[in-house]
Design goal:
single chain; 278 residues; alpha+beta; 2 domains; six-stranded mixed sheet; six-stranded antiparallel barrel; globular
């Protein structure tokens, strides 16, 4: 993609109002790099060191530190993310927690709540596919958090039969609200449509180009030999120039901070700064 006129990529100056196109190798991803005032949009490289087939580079050179970022100048941008899961329950209060283990949701053991929430076909499987199931931790009003995408996904590490607890990848605190969710192609497609609508509405004018960063686990393999995320975007905006990569993690906004997503699609829509909004 070639930028011209008022739009250009700035490697030098950065400020809190910027949108930063950001690429990083997994081994070089750090909280202090992610958590800056500027809004980041981008992806994590597909290999650990960013030195292999999916190297991190900018300015025509491979980045030795495994991180690259450029500010998008002369543009107005709006960012969104589709986490695309099917909610199995409404948000439930985390009532008892110990370290990474959630013991009770509401008045009941966490594992019991999960099993009861599963679709019958999944519940009757010999082994529950925990890799497809996760907890969604909401923020803001829990009544509308799922619909508005105000949640972060917390992945399951283990289900513990001894005390009916669930071990999560990230700690939770008592009083947080969690809903059980499952990866689902139809839910992901619906959520991507809603994400495109919200992002376009926030831009307040037709976009001139888009950035799209889907997870490698959410591309054609997930949808069945076609990338529905890309299809939906091109159908909504025919002829729109779009660039991006499949990532080993996606970087975008969540709750006014930069967030590392998994199994998601991060979208950025941009228009020339000089264009008047309707």
């Amino acid at each position: 993609m070639v930028f011209g006129g008022p739009a250009f990529l700035d490697h030098a100056q950065k400020n809190d109002e910027d949108v930063l196109l950001s690429l990083v190798a997994p081994g070089d991803l750090a909280a202090d790099w992610l958590d800056v005032g500027s809004r980041r949009v981008g992806a994590v490289a597909g290999d650990v060191l960013g030195r292999g087939p999916f190297r991190v580079w900018t300015g025509g050179q491979v980045r030795r530190e495994g991180r690259a970022e450029v500010a998008l100048r002369g543009l107005v941008g709006n960012l969104g993310a589709s986490q695309g899961v099917r909610a199995l329950t409404s948000p439930i209060e985390v009532a008892e927690v110990h370290d990474f283990d959630v013991l009770k949701l509401g008045h009941y053991p966490a594992l019991n709540v999960l099993v009861q929430a599963l679709p019958i076909g999944v519940r009757e499987m010999e082994r529950i596919p925990l890799h497809l199931i996760m907890g969604g931790v909401t923020f803001g009003d829990p009544a509308t958090a799922i619909k508005e995408g105000r949640y972060r996904l917390n992945h399951i590490v283990a289900a513990n039969m001894s005390d009916q607890s669930i071990t999560f990848a990230q700690r939770l605190t008592r009083g947080e609200r969690l809903f059980w969710a499952m990866r689902d192609t139809l839910a992901a497609e619906r959520d991507m449509r809603a994400t495109i609508d919200r992002t376009a509405l926030g831009l307040k004018a037709p976009p001139d180009f888009g950035l799209l960063f889907p997870c490698t686990g959410r591309g054609p393999h997930f949808y069945g030999d076609t990338d529905r995320d890309l299809d939906l975007l091109t159908h909504r905006f025919p002829g729109l120039p779009i660039i991006g990569v499949y990532g080993n993690g996606e970087i975008g906004p969540l709750d006014e901070t930069n967030h590392l997503y998994q199994y998601s699609a991060v979208l950025g829509l941009f228009r020339a700064e000089t264009r008047n909004s309707p």
